[in-house]
Records
---
Amino acid sequence: MLTAAPLFPQDRPDLKVVNRIRSEEFEHSQVMDTLQMLTDRYGPRLTASPEYLEAVHWAEGRLKEYGLENVKLEKWPFGRSWSLKEFSLEMVEPRYASLTAAPLAWSEGTKGAVTGEAVLAVLGTGRMRYNLKANQQDIDKYEAKWKGQLRGKVVLISKMTEPKPWAAAPFTRYDEKQLAEMGKAPEPSPKVKVDVNNIEIPDDPDEARAYIRSLPESVFEDLFDKYQDQRAKFLEFMKNEGVAGVIQADGRAHAGMVFAESAGSYKSKYPLAPPTFVVTAEQYNRMARLIEKKTPVKVRLSLKAEASSGDIDSYNITGEIPGGAKKDELVMVGAHFDSWHSGTGATDNGAGSAVMIEVMRILKALDLKMDRTVRIALWSGEEQGLLGSKAYVKEHFGDPKTMKVTEAHAKLSGYFNLDNGTGKIRGVYLQGNDAMRPVFEQWLAPFRDLGVSEISIRNTGGTDHLSFDAVGLPGFQFIQDPMDYGTVTHHSDMDTYDHIQAGDEMQAAAVIASLVYDAAMRPEMLPRKELPKPQEEPKGKMESRAAAASSGR
């Protein structure tokens, strides 16, 4: 009888409340309406852009409409804004072709349409990488070879890239075997020395992302800062040479797709990049082959973009449902609200933002009386390095560099994050917090019929729960079906409303609303890991444990 009794009876979910939550979401859902507005009307949402601010004010009104209190915008210092107004890219010789392209963020605009001869001037392996030493060698060779030869030219800077064949289905859900494998603890591995100045990262984009995910956040920050400095100096060389524009291909692309992030830096201390575009592999290869065959190629480009002259603030959005008996204690949910600019920011991460807004709507619509206050936060600057959530955590809870924490640190029970596209929730990553396993086992049990089954001890990276985990607060990201997130939509022009599965959004909203209610009503705060040690400022060499991780930077 003792073995049959639950070990933690206080964590039994209230099945009547679970049923009410499921009924409210499955019969009266507004999540897709919210998402449609965030994408079709207010997407994309590049951090600190006028478009982002428009979307912020709409979301602010939505939260107030749902009855949340203390809805406000919390500013933090970002960098330079950048807003795309219009663009075109065309091959005009030897034949006319309108090119499927996207400009890269923080590129400088042109003064009207500019026509220039295309020159194939490939940088090293065709792109800058996080291999700083190899990058510098490539840059030095490039500048020595091309100095004085690029004025007025449109520079094709990448190697030709074959469009990837679909090695597996581009649209997938986890099967039980895959979920069971995720539930296994990663194999123990020894600590390794990481020298960011001599780091060896694979050239294959997928392998490179997997390696970067294994780096501690502080190591990655140091690496990224050095990479930005290096890239800025190279861009300054290109601008001084007077290039008319830059065109690059992308190794991630399948047929007809473009992936667009940034060319220049969001930091105003760096120069804007020359007008830089990414085009489909097929069109890039055509131009490159013609140039190799000594056939002159001319390209006409136009880019109208506006950037602030200096650094400005960006904003996170917060709102609350006040608690009762323990209203000074807090349960938080969140998702990043910003996106890149070639799509409309649907799977990354309008999907997560819409779900979390819906979670708050459900809890408020049911008028559930919760002991703890529930707060939503929609973050900006995630795509530039979790900047919004880091700023928020530092201001409200603690500084991971010094590990000096605030009084509010002791009052946050936990934070739940959603940021892996449209896939339905299949479980949760414990982020190394094994004391949460029996809690989640009971809380998630009512959702087994909706496919929620796996609890993984593993860490997962690349999104805003890390900002909370860095100061010892329970922060969790969910296991989600991959769908076409990693193959098609992530940072691509295909990141649109059409790639969202309504049933997945509704399932996620019901699951998270139930967990939030459970956390808000739990007699005790959620169990925590030990407070991390203060982070030392990286000085080149850091120790890293090559841990398995899921979502990517």
---
Amino acid sequence: MPGAQRLPLLAARDLGSTLAWRRGEAISAGCFIAEAQALAETLPAQGRPINLCQDRYHFALALAAALLRGQTSLLPPNALPATLGQVPAEGAAPYVLSDDDTLDVGALPRLAVQRPAAAGTATAVPLVAADLEAACLLTSGSTGAPQPHTKRWGMLVANIGAEAARLAEMLGRPTLVGLTLVATVPPQHSYGLESSVLLALLGGATLDACRPFYPADIAQTLAELPRPRALVTTPFHLKTLLLSGVALPAVDLQLSATAPLSPQLAAQAEAALTGPLVEIYGCTEAGQVASRRTTEGDLWTTLGALRISAESDAAQGERCVVAGGHVTEPTPLADVLELVDARHFRLLGRANDLIHVAGKRSSLAHLNYHLNRIPGVEDGAFWLPDDDGEDVVRPVALVVAPTLSAREIIQALRRQIEGAFVPRRVLQVAALPREATGKITAAALRRFALDTLSATQAGTAAATPVAAEDAEVTIAADHPAFAGHFPGRPVLPGVALLSLVMETLQARPALRAALGEAPCIASAKFLAPVVPGTRLRIALRPQGRGVAFEIHAAEVAVARGQLAAGSA
């Protein structure tokens, strides 16, 4: 790609058209450009911005300002101080762009991001060097240190153009202009960056600034936006939304990624939200690779000019490689694919996901697929213990299924998977240790499984259901957390709910003693908003080596999770 080539910051569109919605305000493309140019002037002449903005419009502004300044935006997997402290030191010094002044960024310089006042409206679209390293996605490696994956602007333009063309074709529209994107995924993740931010900048769609969390918030956000509108989400978030019982407004498109979606869940989503559900397949190394409409079959079709082929490698064996389009160098895929031809394939699972039990082969993704399609299973994951060299190692299932017994889960699995993979142990847990995107890392699942399993084997888990120890509290209308969360639409933040759980634990000496000197939140899932005047019931019960908690408002579960012993 010639170094002199320059490409537009925005795809061709009327600069008076709406590029973003923020708190009910329509922001035009021309206004966005002017605000990005004004913000760019405040950035340091040299440096690498770490974009930690949570407001999606602020994130897009910061990304665009960095591009106009010729700087590479660093996108870490989270905003923990330990992660920020491990940002690669090569190149220009990093600094933080954030719209949260309470965020702990350690010793890194911080620049607050907000909409510049009186920026005016631009009349032309600025150009960006095609070979500029526009973004560097930092993913957690096996050592825990963030691993960099850079994306040049020209590659992103080509990738998003192919995605936009495919989605417009599926919707029977000439372009995506006017389609508003509501996303539950963070913009720092590759999928969130591509399909909730860049699909607006480079694909002609419109982004919504917020990231609704609770099912009721997702429904309300969608209902407040004009059609056509799309929901950009993940299988985990989608399942939580459908299980919530919240009435859902119609959408014109649903996008899902990060894990394969079952046909059953896809059909439920299309019935509830009416719009077609399209899955995106890709990886951090290659970006978006293919798509499928899940209810129409299991065949994936590559985007644009991308082509997939099989090759043999002395060290790796046979593997699939993608090339063409925005993938300028042939890139190996970490998944096992069944190729139909260069443009069509079936996804069988990740190469490092394959497991062997009693001479049989399967993938954890396949097993998880069948586990999570069982009615009554809210969430679940298979885990294969380490081989001790003696007995045949059998998989273990960790399941969130309050209404099912382990025996019922095993019986349901016997009808779906080979007998060698039916778990001997089903561990009922309050929640799994998922990240913001809904993913569970192999390391996190292993730690969680070992802790839960060892506690059960040691006899610390209850053999029969234990009555929950309940506490009740009414959330006052003048609770201080409502002042900034959110103005005009007060919702009690998750941290305040967790604080109530810890207060309840302190008043339960027996449970408190089981968690040692420094109890901590091992996992938490927030299911519904808590508004002023809500009466909450907080229930605690022993589970594994920890204590499970559930918070209810009347008969509605608003949060659940698990407490564990921490380090003093």
---
Amino acid sequence: MKDRRFRLLAILLALSILGAACSKNETTEKTKKKTESPEYEQHEMETKDPDAETSETEETTEPSQRDTSARTSPTPTPTPEVIPLLTEADIQSMNNNNAIIVKNDEGHVSTIVGRFFHRPVADVEEAIDAVKGVQELLGLQTGYFPLAMYGATYDGYTYYTLKQIYGDLTVQNATLKIVLDPEGYPCMLQSSLVTNLGYAVSDPKINGSQAEQIVLSQVGAGYSVMHEYTKKTCLADEISQAQHCFQVVTNNPDGTIGFDMPYIIHFVDYDGNYIKSYPTGFLPDDSNIADYGNDSYFTDLVPENRTYTIDRNGESYAFTVPISYNSVDQQYYMADPSRKIIVADFFEFEFNDRNLVFETSSDPDNWSENHLITYYNYIRSYDFYNAFHIQSTDSFGMPMLILTGYCDENREPVNNACNMGVTNGWSVFGAADVNTYCYSLDVCAHEFTHGVSGFARQGNIYANEFGAINEAFSDIMGNICEMYMGDTWDTDWLLGETSGNTMRSMSNPYLYNQPIFIGDPYYLSPSLQGMYGIQDNGGVHINNTLISYLCYKLYAAGMTLDDLARFFLCAMEMHTPTADYDDLYAIFVAAAQLCGHAEIIPVISQHWADTNLTGDRSKNAESVAINGFQRINIPFESYELATHCIVSVYYSNGQIALQALCQPDGVASILIPADDNSYIIIVEEYSDEFWSAKTGEKALDYYGTGWTTDANNMGTFTMDSGDVATLPVYS
């Protein structure tokens, strides 16, 4: 059996124009594994080991390290190529003014669609030479060290995925994508690289154990630390700033807060201050460079296809799955040695030191129906992606572990289903016994897609726009998979319909109270608190229809399921953790061009216009008037103050009507029903953004001209349908 190990290879480049010094990364030996298809090839990067002994005639990596006096060189040392620094005008000139250039909130370029280098390149090292030419546009004023993760070739285009390292740290959520066209020219770039890595790092005043205690004191009861993941790291947040800190991973005790996120990653700075946290399905582990010998679990298993019939949503449903016999213990396993998929117990793996208790039976016909259909649907998700030459979630055939009996540490069932990321060399999924979510292929394919897109992004910020894009890709590919495999009767692109628990509609989002455009009645504004898990992590599930609705439009416009799958897989391969809606538009345009479907670009552009995704989303939401509602905009004196506040709207009888948080621009934008009710608008202030302690509140005064703490001066207001009003600044 081939060795599946995957190593992270440091590309040691002398970025002399940045004044950078190289650093060394340890590597593990591996055997490169490719698919056989000439159309799509996933491959790992081959680079020279910088520590390997060189012969007399070999050159060292950097020109500055060459010692020509120590040996005779048969040819002169070549002069290093001078890489010109490009401007936006230069890039437009290369592309006949048709390049797309997207900037982030800091004003740095985050996405380029179009050629941005003067010549073809032969490999990843030369591709990074092209990055040197746009370093100033990207805001890279200090040294950075990209870490080559993997490459992919699709229809003649080559994709490189790189991670940023700084010193001995891999920077969290800092990923770079470079795409080469069939002629070898760099033609697309998408970046989440961090721009402020040049600051001095002080020694920590705390250690890892103290960081864990700080986290536990912050979050309270119900959380348990996963000690093996506590380490120093470098955190890149939403606006691409870097900060050295400790990461601490805990469980997510509220399993229903997010559909797919069983863990929470917390960050504590070197001074002992709690920075932030976010829920995730991807453990920040280096297990993907280690070999845990998981292939050996399948060695003695002999599969036999067996057919079962269950009740699925009131109908008799028959399906066939491989059940494997192990002659060593004479037990049958719910396992597929061909695809390397196996079912085990959730509690034992999650809460008993990664203990593997596989699902076995002495009778091959005696299994939980829930577990059987879950196993079957993950097999079909695997087969769907394999049809597009993506083997398992990492494209290299990583073994899959399906954990049934999803529960908490007290064995209380969790009503959820999730992708649990990569742990101990497994691609892990959790499935509950108390629901029927996994009876639907689109749900299992949704979770499977989280694994595929997570590997593509090489990072995950599961909140606000980033999380909504993440969820949209999973809904899109889940539905395409289900329809592609012929396992649904619906034409509305529903999610979970065959399980009896329909959750969303991609063709008509309003059916399940999801938005169609920025600022509509179901839209949840992004917020800082979204990073802490508040309001669906800033609307990651609710707002995902802003993007998934486009898939239905493309299908209605005539794209086949096969074309849709290839288009969205191409887009998934080109996005990084901090790609927002602006970046995603450029990514979709690039994907349409690369997949040979330039005719859909007008549909994409019209969708962005119709949904208010173009431009400043905060301002777009604040300007939208809706019949039946009055929009109230409350600007805050400072963003810091805004993040410490909650806007609460009460009926005149004192009952709560709704609550809202501030958008990234420091304005709370609220739609209040224009009905016969009178409302009171109150801003509640707290000591910090975690709302640890309430420090006061103010109400809109009787005349609507200011804010008051005097209950006798508090005003009650009726709303005007279709109106937009901006209240006095809250200070």
